[in-house]
Amino acid sequence: MKSASRKIQSILMGTAVAVGLGLSAPAGAEELRIGYLAPLTGGLAQTGIDMRDGFLLYLDQHGNKLGGMDVKLIIEDEQGKGDVAVTKAKKLVLQDKVHMLIGGVLASTGYALAPVSTELKTMYIPSIPAADDLTQRQLKNFPYLIRTSWSSSQPNHPLGQWACDQGYKKIVTIAADYAFGYETVGGFQKAFEDCGGKIIQKIWPPLGAKDFGPFIPTIKADTDAVFSLMVGPMPAQFIKQMRGAGFKKPIIGGGTSYDEFVLPFMGDEAVGDVSALHYSAALQTPENEAFVKAYRAKFGKVPSYYSENNYTTAMWLDEALKKAGGKWPGAEELIKIMVGIKLDKTPRGPVSFDDMRNPVQNIYIKKVEKKKMFGYDKDELWNTVIKTYPNVDQFWTYGKDKFLAQPVYDKNFPPCKFCE
Amino acid sequence: MGTQFWVVQAFNGVSYGALLFLVGAGLSLIFGVMRIVNLSHGSYFLLGGYVALSVIGHTGSWLLSIPIAALTIAVVGLIMERLFLRPEGHAKLVRDALIALGIALVVRLAIGPILPQLLPGLIGGIIQVTLVVIVFAIPIFLLLQRISAVAIEADVLRQVLMTVGFAFLFQQAALDIWGGNNFDIQPPSALTQSLVIGGTYLPLYRLFMIVGALVIGIVLWLAMEKTRMGAAVRATVDDAQMARGVGIDTNKISMLIFALGAGMAALGGVIGGAFLGVYPGLDFEMLPIAFAVVIIGGMGSLGGAAIGALLVGLADNFGKALFPELAYFTLYAPMVLILAIKPTGLFGRD
Amino acid sequence: MGSQNFKIAAVIVSLLVLLIIVPYCNSFVVLLATRALVFAILAMSLDILLGFTGLASLGQAAYFGVGAYLTAILANNYGFGLKWDFWLMIPIGMAVGGALAAFFGLFAIRATGTYFLMITLALGQCVWGLAYRWNSMTGGDNGITMKGGRPQFGIDLTSDINFFYLTFGFFVATLLALYILVRSPFGKSLLGIRERELRMRILGYNVWLHKYVAFIIAGAFGGLSGVLWAHANGIVTPETVVLTTSVDALLMTVLGGAGTLVGGAIGSAIVFGLREYVSTLVPWWQYVLGGVYVLTILYLPTGLMGIPGRIRQWRNSQTKRETTKMAPAPS
Fold it and tell me: Does C102 touch chain A if contact means CB atoms closer than 8 Å?
């Protein structure tokens, strides 16, 4: 069973080499060397593949140029491990002399790579890592960082509000035991409790756990719903085991619990579950429809937010480099330019940067439904958008200063006041 | 925490223990019979899952994948044992040939980009590979004949390291054949339902795991206690030299046990693939746990493996549920204590 | 005795070559060389156990990890170890490594052979389990990033080249210290235990105590390598203590040649070169790594340092064949 991904990987390696060997560049076109870090093996492999493919789709559609510069893309596998990511990043900068680093998946990888970008004075775009503090309390430590994706708590504030609106009073959270899990639950808990809800229990299975047997029976019986945050290999198994264990109440999720990187592999047991994210492949806009169709035609699957975020990153870079006159202006200058660019026609909708270099964007509350979309003739699982919160930034309605004054969301913050 | 919590957790722990029994029993017998510490046992587990995936991918039958995966990996284990761990006579030649072939293939991988393309297309590619292999493999093979390999048997450290080397080779091969993705094995939908007893949900798949392990365990035990072959195995475990003296062909026994052990590990991989998944790295994650089972239960003892598996399954489950911060510690600390007090394990013989 | 002096000269020359060449390579290679040197120290500590006392341990990563985590926690939470107190961190790391080994040794030393392997494996896994799940202490899966950067005490250690020199210094110091140790009466009795434990016991040596002390020494130097690792790497994760790390250390020692001390350094260079450097060039580097393991075990059990010995052995077996041919067959 030769995996398509490996074939594509070797083709891409070849492409990168070919591009590197220099299809004769027209006079004046400089080469842009990008170091791309993604987990291509291990538990997060599917997300890494989606990331890379999203970026490649944009390059493919634009003659492998960004802002008029020829792109040399050097892809390294960070295996979902922080120290491997750091090693590969250093290799990319010190040996391959890349202009910028893009990628990483886990929040922990983001936290590991950000200091490296400062140390090596190299631009780093965490195109997926959502770790809150990268663009909040720790931003001043990372002058070379600009984030094109999201912050973990960003979509969960509105989701917490939405949960109150649905009438839920008590919720149990079960989330992967690491920074992203803490910040997702933190954002949800803050908003949910601010409008009258109560989090009565927090469960933390280890990141990558696939056997939820020890955790599911501990869920308190008097809860109205469960809020889950599952990453990588966890989401598909979690739903199966929850429903298999007889849990009939609603399950709402952080964005990655039902994102399209895993949705095709889930069964009907996921139908009806709600989650919140800044992207859904079922968004009915002309830009998204074109994106989904092009992506599926080239890579054989529906794009996930991992794909979209990297596609939009490429788009942002394209616009920024165009403004810079088609030449590499240096990391600080490029970041200055990028921050001022507002994009309207991305697959996820309108995006811009706030003054802490994190995107301001729509948050979509989406619900899993089985239906046909975009002219495809099979019934499939799609994340139908049921509500849109426009122009959400990382601070929600709290205001930047008030938000930054509180500590970063952690396992114990906000404290579990109502834990029974 | 009501009784339901304890019931379900115990049930989960027992079902995990069932899986561990499959992996651990083989490892325990291999050690008991052959005194070999096999660090590629985790690889057998993982490869079993991968082979099952391929079978399901091609035939759509989950049921068929179980015996095929078990048999394939049993053969792989057999080859490893016969050619590398305890080669005799002709086996040494075959081993040298295999090594020469392997080296030649790696050389081909290395110089591939700079080789001229003789003939286009697939046929051209095959011819080129064959030529390179012949050019390199033959001199290497001849060279290997002049050098003598040092026997592995009885040298624990070298067994360990060689089996680890194979584990790395298997890991790379699996990556090349099946890719780096995280897979789940889908059992037939009948097994995804749950049995409801008094308001408690018991997933059928876990029940199937328990029943399956019980059946296999009983069959093995009967074979050990009631058949002549079983008696021969037990004799070899107790004292290999005496067994040889009485005329038992310990070579055949060790072959049988190694193949059986590998096959059972593969079986574990197929069955575990439904809720643990199949992904690179699972081999080395499973390995220490398998060793925990064997050490706690006692090396060479089938019953010990069963008890050990049960204890480890329960400890792991309850540990994660009740003391999440110390989860793995609650598993390995008892192992250390048992080893310190009774190094041969609860039921081990030595 | 001549071959001994030759070996020493060879070692000194290679070290000088290393010292001169590496700083001229690009920063990434300097970084790799530094990390390989740290692992070389770990491998040498294991060699004391394996090559000299005859105890194969699958849990050496435990002391490595404890040293590394301690360094990271003290640096991040208490700002300790980032200035001149870095030089305090060294003995602290060694003390903690040694103390842990002293504790573990109580359980482990009574065992031998396979059981020693198993129990050290279990002990290593205990430490790993804590590193992985004791989130409040160790950051769990995320590990701990060294926020304070490298220590500052007059020399700018953020420069990779300077840090390389520092690590090189520690490597040489460890090599010397251990060399003196193995040439001492204590070291000689360790060798005796490796060869004929029973005889040593009969001669009245307290074998248990000797092994225990060797275990502690190995743990202490393991802790030292951990301290250096935290600064070399900038981040400490459970990967530092995972089983594969202990296995790697064992392989490095055997690959280079157990009982030669420097063998560990050679082994470290090869394994590191493969894992970290070749892996960035080609995706199939693990075939080479696995192949190296298998072939070394089969054909070079005395490791690479043992090649001269093996060649001599092979030549002897050849001459024996010829002299046998020359002798007339009895009629």
Answer: no
Which pLDDT band, with edges at 50, 70 and 90, does A298 fall under? Answer: very high
Beta strands A198-203 and A170-175 are parallel
- For residue A45, the distance in angstroms to the closest alpha carbon of chain B comes to 5
Please report the number of interchain residue pairs, chain A to chain C, with beta-carbon separation below 8 angstroms: 61
What the block records as the tokens of A141 is: 């430590």
The CATH number of the structural domain formed by B3-86+152-341 is 1.10.3470
Band the pLDDT of C3: cuts 50, 70, 90: low
Cα–Cα distance measured from residue B321 to residue B315, given in angstroms and rounded to the nearest whole number: 10
Domain with A23, as residue range(s), is 4-129+304-346
Query: Which amino acid is present at B11?
Result: F
Residue C158 in contact with partner chain A when CB distance is under 8 A: yes
Percentage with pLDDT > 90 across chain B: 21
Amino acid in position B62: W
The DSSP annotation for B142-197 comes to: HHHHHSPPPP-TT-HHHHHHHHHHHHHHHHHHHHHHH-S--B-----GGGGSEEEE
C142 and A411 in contact by Cβ < 8 A?
no
Task: Give the whole-angstrom CA distance, residue A117 versus residue A105.
Answer: 16
Question: Would you state the pLDDT for residue C174?
Answer: 92
Q: For residue C143, which of A112, A114, B181 has the smallest C-alpha distance?
A: A112
Looking at the fold, whether A110 and A230 belong to one and the same domain comes out as: no
Contacts of B54 in chain A (CB under 8 A): 1
Q: Report the alpha-carbon distance of residue A124 to residue A147 in Å, rounded.
A: 8
Residues A173 and A119 in one domain: no
Distance CA A292, CA A296 (A): 6
**Domain shared by A340 and A375, yes or no:** no
**Cα dihedral sign, A218-A221-A223-A226:** positive
Tell me, what's the pLDDT at B318? 86
Structure pTM? 0.84
Decide: C40 and C221 in contact? Cβ < 8 Å.
no
Quick one: tokens of C27?
A: 């920063």
Position of tokens 């030292």? C224
pLDDT, tens digit, for every residue of C167-213? 999 999 999 999 899 889 888 888 888 887 778 878 887 888 888 99
The string of pLDDT tens digits covering residues A168-209 is 999 999 999 888 899 999 999 999 999 999 999 999 888 878
Whether residue B194 and residue A211 make contact (CB cut-off 8 A), yes or no, is: no
E strand or H helix at C123: helix C113-133
pLDDT of residue B219 exceeding 80, the answer is yes
Closest-CA residue of C relative to A138 is: C147
On whether any CB of chain C is under 8 Å from the CB of B37, the answer is yes
Largest alpha-carbon pair distance within chain A? Answer: 70
Q: Is residue A353 part of a domain?
A: no
Q: Dihedral sign for Cα A160, A166, A170, A172, please.
A: negative
Whether the per-residue pLDDT at A112 is higher than 60: the answer is yes
Report the domain count for chain A: 2
Domain ranges of chain B: 3-86+152-341
Report the complex ipTM: 0.82
Separation in Å, CA B173 to CA A58, A66, A310, B212, B281: 32, 37, 30, 30, 13
Nearest chain C Cα distance for residue B223, angstroms = 28
Residues whose CB falls within 8 Å of the CB of residue C165, separated by 6 or more in sequence, listed in order = C19, C23
The per-residue b/e assignment along B208-234, b for 16 or more CB within 10 angstroms, e otherwise, is: bbbebbeebbeebeeebeeeeebebbb
In this structure, the answer to whether residues A376 and A249 fall within a common structural domain is yes
Chains A–B, number of C-beta pairs less than 8 Å apart: 103
A183 belongs to a structural domain: yes
> Mutating which of C132, C279, C280, C282 best tests the A interface, going by the most A Cβ atoms within 10 A?
C280
SS (H, E, C) C133-162: HCHHHHCHHHCEECCCCCCECCCECCCHHH
